[in-house]
Every structure is written in structure tokens, then in C-alpha cells.
């Protein structure tokens, strides 16, 4: 019997309580460039950090539409051609997509030290939030006996 690898689900979904419901969208051939982390920063907050060394803010696009977060990077044409002897820093164009849950929205994005940080927040409507139900104590009933 084959063992199923669910790691692609963990890498491309944010804010889902039931990741296995997305089995049909799992893609084991997912691209690995650029590398990224997904972290939980609070009870309802998340952060995606993507290593985009060499990209400027003008080279990056972050778009959220219909439960899909898309990050694109495309270098602007360099003014002068350089004679590069060895290219170890990748600067190729990329497009990375993340499935996000229904009540997760992008709060903001910023570029710092070659890392693109995208902050997400999950905001459940009041009707969807769990609520505590008070248990009322009833007065004990007394059994009446009839005397003859």
C-alpha cells in the first residue's frame, strides 16, 4: 500500500482547519522557487515570508482574488548588461499561488532585507464564532406523598 504525501497541502494553504478536504487540488510537482515559510503569528493571524533576494518592490505584485493569493515577481530590464561569471542568485520570474480560507484576508505586505512578508488575518463573522451556552440550574423538585 502506498503512503500518501500530504505536504503539498500544508505548504500552499493558510487558515484551513481541514486541510485534507483539499486533496483534489494537491500538486506534488509544485515549484520550489522562491522558498517561503508559513507561520502562525497569533490565534487568528498568519504570515507568509518569501525569499525574494534581488527583487525590488516595483518588481513584485501581490494580489488576492476569490480565495487565491498570487505573488508574482518579474525583474525589470537592467540598464546595462553585466558580464556575470557565475550566477548563483536566481532572478528569474516567478508566480506562486496560495489557497486561502473563506474568512482569511490579506492585511498587508512589506519587503525587508530581501524577504517579502505578507500578513494574513482570519476574521470569522459573529454568527460563526463559538459561543458559550450557560447551563441553568433548575430548582430541585420535591416528590409529594399522599397520605390516606
Structure description:
About 8% of the residues have low confidence. The chain has one domain: Sandwich (Immunoglobulin-like). The chain is built from one helix and eight strands; from the N terminus they run H-E-E-E-E-E-E-E-E. With 148 residues, it is mostly beta strands. Strands 1-6-5-4 form a four-stranded mixed β-sheet. This is Hsp20 family protein.
Q: Give the helix/strand class.
A: mainly beta
Helix content: under 10%
Beta content:
25-35%
Could you say what the CATH topology is called? Immunoglobulin-like
CATH architecture assignment: Sandwich
* Continuous helix count: 1
Order of helices and strands: HEEEEEEEE
In the sheet with the most strands, the strands line up as: 1-6-5-4
Q: Quick one: overall form?
A: rod-shaped
How many independent structural domains?
Answer: 1
Query: Termini distance?
Result: 77 Å
Give the number of DSSP strands: 8
Largest sheet: 4 strands, mixed
Q: Tell me, what is the CATH class?
A: Mainly Beta
* Radius of gyration from the alpha-carbon trace, in angstroms: 25 Å
Low-confidence stretches: 17-28
Protein name: Hsp20 family protein
Pfam family, one: HSP20
InterPro entries: A-crystallin/Hsp20_dom (IPR002068), ACD_IbpA/B (IPR037913), HSP20-like_chaperone (IPR008978)
Organism: Roseibium polysiphoniae
